[in-house]
Design brief:
By secondary structure, this protein is an alpha/beta fold. It is built from 11 helices and 15 strands. It is 34% helix and 26% strand. The strands form 2 sheets. It has a 9-stranded mixed beta sheet. A 6-stranded parallel beta sheet has the order 3-2-1-4-5-6, sandwiched between helices. Helix 9 packs across helix 11. It is globular, with a radius of gyration of 20 Å. It starts with a strand and ends with a strand.
């Protein structure tokens, strides 16, 4: 099998997870990194023994590069995806693919005429607990789904936003809590319940008022396509990063994700099904350990399209549509119907 050459655009915190995952894949080589901070870029290139590009557009001219990983601020994702596809590259982009639902069509049009594949990194779908939940639901282990309840409470203080000024601003982040931290939870909820038909929600800026111009807290109620209802609450105002609490109530029992462990509860019995704890204790337990698997699956799909699993732009648009609907619902104080 020929070696696949990869490049990473962006040297922020998330790039390291991509670089580590690439180093563990057979027949994959990190050939280049693009970073606007010249000193940081050169240091990272030396660390990974790869080429350094100050301008990602120059890097796209390198015909030896097969795959581009986009690990940059939200507002750069769409133009970088379009440029990389136009250059004939495969693309794996951190979420969100775009900042607004209306931008999805432009990416879909470009993809239809491109040689490369596009994947969006919704890594929490690959957490052991997420895969176990999906399996339990497909097997009918708890019967008809009645409700999904999700609570996400993390801590993001002023230093988090001042360290990366693009965060917390509608113009560059596309929002705040919902589109950055909570979008993974919204994606899981709609994935488990086969999509959302309507939403009513509220967003607010409380403890972080004056620091960000977006929301630091949000709540919403959903009607799912499978007939169940959804209850959702999220905030960046906690004093710690708590693991996601997710409960799926069915006619025959309950699936409970608590402390990164998944339990099936029926009457008086409680059975542990899966855990997201990394065997070596690495990673951030409060957001799961699915990144490496998501990246591996993307590369598997490049070699064997039926073997790997990729979150497409169509799939990624579903959670973005929910985010947009919550923002609109909060402004209009009414239910928002989502198109099929």
């Amino acid at each position: 099998m020929n070696t696949v050459n990869a490049a990473i655009i962006g040297g922020g915190a998330i790039h390291a997870i991509h670089a580590e995952a690439l180093q563990q894949l057979p027949n994959v080589r990190l050939r280049a990194i693009a970073e606007t901070d010249i000193n940081k870029g050169r240091q990272l290139a030396a660390l990974y023994d790869c080429h350094f590009y100050h301008d990602y557009r120059e890097m796209l001219w390198d015909d030896t590069i097969d795959v581009v990983h986009i690990c940059t601020p939200h507002y750069l994702h769409k133009p970088m995806i379009l440029a990389a596809l136009a250059a004939g590259k495969h693309v794996l982009c951190e979420k969100p693919a775009v900042m607004h639902t209306l931008d999805v069509a432009e990416v879909e049009t470009a993809l239809a005429h491109a040689r490369g594949k596009l994947g969006i990194c919704y890594q929490n779908r690959f957490n052991p607990t997420s895969l176990a939940i999906k399996h339990q639901l497909q097997e009918g282990a708890i019967g008809k789904m009645l409700t999904i309840k999700a609570v996400l409470t993390w801590s993001r203080g002023g230093s988090y936003y001042t360290a990366s000024p693009w965060r917390g601003k509608a113009a560059t982040e596309g929002g705040c809590l919902l589109i950055n931290q909570a979008i993974h939870t919204l994606d899981l909820m709609q994935w488990f319940a086969e999509g959302v038909t309507r939403v009513k929600g509220v967003v607010d800026n409380t403890w972080l008022a004056g620091t960000i111009d977006g929301e630091d807290s949000a709540m919403a109620t959903f009607a799912f396509r499978n007939g169940a209802r959804g209850l959702f609450y999220a905030s960046n105002c906690h004093t710690a990063n708590s693991p996601l609490q997710l409960e799926i109530h069915g006619e025959k029992g309950t699936l409970l994700l608590e402390g990164s462990e998944l339990w099936r509860i029926h009457a008086e019995t409680r059975q542990k099904l899966a855990s997201d704890a990394a065997p070596d204790g690495s990673g951030k337990s409060y957001w799961g350990v699915g990144h490496h698997e998501a990246i591996r699956q993307f590369y598997d799909a490049l070699h064997h399209p039926t073997a790997g699993s990729v979150c497409s732009i169509h799939e990624a648009a579903k959670s973005l549509q929910i985010v947009d609907a919550i923002y609109r619902s909060s402004q209009l104080r009414t239910w928002i119907n989502l198109e099929k």
